[in-house]
Amino acid sequence: MRVWVACANRDKGAMAMKVCKAACIGCGKCKKACPHDAITVENNLAYIDFNKCKLCRKCVLECPTHAITDAGFAMTAQAMAALAAEKKRQAEAKKAETQKQQGENDSNK
Ligand code: SF4
Ligand code: SF4
Q1: What is the mean pLDDT of the chain?
Q2: Residue of the nearest CA to atom 2 in ligand 2?
Q3: Is any ligand 1 atom within 6 A of the Cβ of residue 56?
Q4: Best residue for ligand 1 mutational test, from 36, 83, 90 (most atoms within 8 Å of Cβ)
Q5: What is the rounded CA–CA span in Å between residue 84 and residue 45?
Q6: Ligand 2 lined by 27 (C-beta under 6 Å)
């Protein structure tokens, strides 16, 4: 089983996406999502420390360009349900954050 960043492009986001839609754009979402502090982002490119990585795959779900790839995982019904639940939790957290920001913006008007 393995999780890795399938990109070596150090260009900034828009430039990287010009050459490849699945490029790492250095957004840092994977780093924020990693509960084991296994990811660093340097020069617009994410790196995974395989000594720290616990193969939880939260970064795979979070990466907007799908630059992070996984392989060798048995996709059991339980694993699929766990991934779906994590994705739902992330979507709800994002929605709540957006609503909170809108509320703050409205109260500042
Ligand atoms: S698989 Fe989990 S532990 Fe490994 S880098 Fe991704 S988020 Fe971090
Ligand atoms: S989430 Fe994806 S695009 Fe963003 S820094 Fe991580 S690997 Fe790169």
Answers
A1: 91
A2: 63
A3: yes
A4: 36
A5: 27
A6: yes
Which residue, 14, 38, 34, is CA-closest to 26? Answer: 14
Delimit the domains of the chain by residue range. 1-73, 74-109
pLDDT of residue 75: 67
**pLDDT tens per residue across span 8-52:** 999 998 999 999 999 999 999 999 999 999 999 999 999 999 999
* Stated pTM of the model: 0.73
Fold of 1-73: Alpha-Beta Plaits (3.30.70)
- The residue among 31, 32, 60 whose CA lies nearest residue 45 is 31
